[in-house]
Write a structure and sequence with these properties.
Low-confidence stretches: 1-5
Helix content: 40-55%
Shape: globular
Radius of gyration: 22 Å
Number of helices: 18
Strand order of the largest sheet: 1-12-11-10-13-14
Largest sheet: 6 strands, parallel
Strand content: 15-25%
Distance between the termini: 32 Å
Structural class: alpha/beta
Bound molecules: iron/sulfur cluster
Mean pLDDT: 92
Length: 430
């Protein structure tokens, strides 16, 4: 199952493409961030298009008191005929007067606010002075010009880091927004291993946000937190290098790396994780019967591509044809590349037409891609998996490992079923 380390892809030449890309913008991250940070409000300063994107990405969720919204830039704002700052101040004052539960307000930049060069960092400073200390106002960009969809979370967390208090305490910090139930599982495992206290970025409430200092060590749970990683380093904190906690193997390696930092032997980790690890391996094995021997092609969307390819090739027996990521961060993704057996094309960025040509030429069994590319590929007889589902579904750590494998097995099973029930239809598509 496990490739020896010297066959890894760290030295594989990377195909770098900088053409047209097909991926959601960073505003999408608001959908999971607003669930995680329970007293935060995300105010997008954007157009009606941005508002529609958020509404449709949020799907059928209806809240009595939603925790995100859009301050719409009208034509007169875009034409510079109105003072957008004054309107923003009025909008924020109205919102905070109506919603005393809001403790953190994020002004989220968009393509239109960037194009008219609305300075949201100055607006955040001005509004913090007006509404602080009760409400902390910060800003980041979720614009499609600057960000792909998971980079919205990274930008949000990176914006938080400079505002966090200083500490000299030696503390472990988990970095990345996980669903509460998954975060609780991780905290429970770490406590059983003997590691405490553990802080989380982001915390669920403003008052629980961590302090940072030269004795803070942090473990990333999300592979797209490159800017947050840089911001934490600027505060003197140090990262624990490790593969990401996807699958039984990734979770074990991640826990062992954290344990080693605190002088705890790997045998202790093995002892604590024996039962959940066995459960995870059993659940993965069930899905792997569908996945084994199948070829997978990752288009660049979430920056989860390298850890997921590592999981699928090493624990589920799949073969990776191409693993493409929006940004390849050698430092953060290096431990993953070390574990992926040589063979797949490793690519960064996208030139969508060229990449689609490679998909058509190699005809993988499964292509992981954005929503906009999935339907055309399905129409050509190629099975697809929506990258965004991997971010919206709890997939980290042992208890979710079986679900993670199943997410990839499902489209293949559906396709087999269709082939059996309607053999002519699939042949026609192919
Ligand atoms: S930020 Fe840009 S890419 Fe995103 S919805 Fe708004 S206009 Fe579209």
């Amino acid at each position: 199952m496990n490739a020896p380390l010297d066959t890894g892809c760290r030295d594989t030449p990377v195909l770098r493409e900088r053409g047209q890309r097909e991926v959601f913008c960073g505003l999408t991250g608001i959908i999971w961030l607003h669930r995680k940070m329970q007293d935060a409000f995300f105010l997008v300063v954007g157009s009606r298009t941005c508002a529609h994107l958020l509404q449709s990405a949020a799907g059928v969720m209806i809240f009595a008191e939603p925790r995100f919204g859009t301050a719409i830039l009208e034509e007169k704002d875009l034409a510079g005929m109105a003072d957008a700052n004054a309107e923003l101040d009025r909008e924020v004052a109205r919102l905070l007067a109506r919603r005393p539960d809001i403790k953190q307000l994020f002004l989220v930049g968009s393509c239109p606010s960037e194009v008219i060069k609305l300075d949201l960092s100055r607006a955040a400073e001005r509004l913090s002075a007006q509404h602080g200390p009760k409400v902390r106002v910060l800003n980041y960009s979720g614009s499609g010009i600057e960000t792909t969809f998971t980079e919205g979370e990274d930008a949000c967390l990176a914006a938080l880091v400079p505002s966090l208090p200083e500490t000299q305490a030696r503390e472990l910090l988990l970095v990345g927004a996980l669903p509460d139930v998954v975060e609780d599982q991780a905290l429970d495992l770490l406590a059983q291993i003997g590691i405490s206290p553990v802080r989380c970025l982001p915390a669920r409430h403003a008052e629980d946000m961590p302090s940072i200092g030269p004795n803070t060590v942090y473990a990333l749970t999300q592979p797209f937190a490159g800017d947050t990683h840089a911001a934490l380093q600027r505060r003197g904190a140090r990262r624990i290098p490790a593969p990401f906690p996807f699958g039984a193997e990734g979770t074990t390696l991640w826990l062992k790396a954290v344990a080693a930092e605190f002088g705890i032997a790997p045998e202790k980790v093995d002892q604590v994780v024996a039962a959940p690890r066995a459960r995870a391996e059993k659940a993965i094995a069930a899905a792997a019967t569908t996945l084994r021997g199948k070829r997978i092609f990752f288009m660049p969307d979430s920056q989860l591509e390298l850890p997921l390819a590592r999981f699928l090739t090493r624990e589920c027996g799949m073969e990776a044809v191409e693993i493409s990521t929006p940004y390849l961060h050698a430092d953060l993704h290096g431990p993953e590349l070390d574990l992926i057996a040589k063979g797949p094309v490793i690519s960064e960025g996208q030139d969508v037409d060229l990449q689609l040509d490679r998909v058509r030429a190699t005809r993988p069994d499964l292509t992981v891609c954005g929503l906009g590319l999935a339907n055309p590929l399905e129409a050509e007889g190629l099975a697809t998996k929506w990258a965004i589902e991997l971010v919206f579904t709890p997939v980290h750590f042992y208890e979710q490992a079986g679900d993670l494998a199943s997410l990839f097995a499902r489209p293949l099973r559906r396709r087999d079923l269709l082939a059996r029930q309607h053999p002519n239809r699939l042949e026609a598509a192919e």
